[in-house]
């Protein structure tokens, strides 16, 4: 089962970008594929990055993700991509108040 990727005519992604997007969609059972809804490829002018908005079940993300991943394996091991949630910090309490 594959998902159609719609590309607005005003953006011109390379074949590599389209391939990467299709590879990502192929690795996850996204809502759009299950329900035969095309995914739209977006382009962020500020960062010059292409991206898809898609919906993935949390259980699948948890099963396929690495909570010990580091941003840069050559950098400090303490600086992790995913962090534990600390509910006693000022920032967390501020977010709760919002």
Notes on the protein architecture:
This protein is of the alpha+beta class. Helix content is 33%, strand content 12%. The protein contains 4 helices and 3 strands. The protein has helices at 15-27, 31-34, 58-64, 90-97; strands at residues 5-6, 39-44, 49-52. The longest helix has 13 residues, at 15-27.
Topology of this protein?
Elements: E1 5-6, H1 15-27, H2 31-34, E2 39-44, E3 49-52, H3 58-64, H4 90-97
pLDDT averaged over residues: 83
- Proportion in β-strands: 5-15%
The oligomeric status of these chains comes to single chain
State the end-to-end CA separation.
Answer: 42 Å
Classify the secondary structure makeup into a structural class.
alpha+beta
For the largest beta-sheet, the strand count, sense and barrel status come to:
3 strands, mixed
Number of distinct helices: 4
Lateral strand order in the biggest sheet: 1-2-3
Uncertain ranges: none
Name the overall outline: extended
> How helix-rich are the residues, as a percent range?
25-40%
Radius of gyration: 18 Å
Order of helices and strands: EHHEEHH
Number of strands: 3
Task: Give structural attributes.
98 residues, alpha+beta, three-stranded mixed sheet, 4 helices, 3 strands, 12% strand, extended
Can I get a quick summary?
The chain has 98 residues and is an alpha+beta fold. 33% of the residues lie in helices and 12% in strands. The chain has helices spanning 15-27, 31-34, 58-64, 90-97, and strands at residues 5-6, 39-44, 49-52.
